[in-house]
Write a structure and sequence with these properties.
The chain has about 250 residues and is α+β, with helices and mostly antiparallel strands. The chain contains four helices and 14 strands. The strands form two sheets. A seven-stranded antiparallel beta sheet has the order 6-5-4-3-2-1-14, with helices on one face. The protein has a seven-stranded antiparallel beta sheet with strand order 7-8-9-10-11-12-13. A hairpin with a 2-residue loop joins strand 2 and strand 3. It is globular and about 50 Å long. It starts with a helix and ends with a strand.
Length: about 250
Amino acid sequence: MKKFLGIWLVLFLIACNEQPRPTADAQRIIDLAIEASGGDRYKNSRIQFTFRDRNYIAYRADGKRVLKRVIETDSGLVEDVISGLSFDRTVEGVSQQLADTTRQKLSDAVNSVHYFAYLPNGLNDAAVNKTYLGLVSIGDSQYHKIKVTFDREGGGTDFEDIFVYWFNEETNLPDFLAYEYHTNGGGMRFREAYNERRVGGIRFVDYRNFKYEGPLPVTSLDSLYMAGHLEALSEIELEDIEVIPDSYN
């Protein structure tokens, strides 16, 4: 009975919290967010950080965006590299022959860490579709709530995933995000940004990561968060961040 009443409370909060504003422009809000977070520095910098004892590097080479993960193992130095549409794994500089499924899994893993690290950069990619869901309250702040989906063409292997972002009305920055994914059995996650810092003019954050297993859609996770119905799962922390102007690449 308590669980039933709790769900109804969340539904009530959703109805009260969202204030639709049909004239709002999702594209304009995302443009402001990218500019406030780093703008062209994302494209014109070499970025490096450590996540869970693995080194991640992003830069441009021959006009292509390169995303790299470097792992120190007992077998030697392992480098996973995405360059344009291609992926390659090397061990001590020797390219490895991989099954297509393994290659895709590794590529997705590398891309995912880079994707979250640079948000909101990437939300203007060609395959991204944006829908404005309204102005909502989280705590004492107002947020523009925007749903993001992806085209099959250019949307990657996870094109069916659904993301929701909450952009602070005053700062234009995304303080919260949620997503629904379909790999490994699927699920939903909600992330709260904290430990904001600027490195080389680019905003970086860590995340408190929550999960939800229930009947409500991913678009309602902000209300579930406020009602205390999300389960704390992990913390996403970036370390040793470096940003170097592109002229040094």
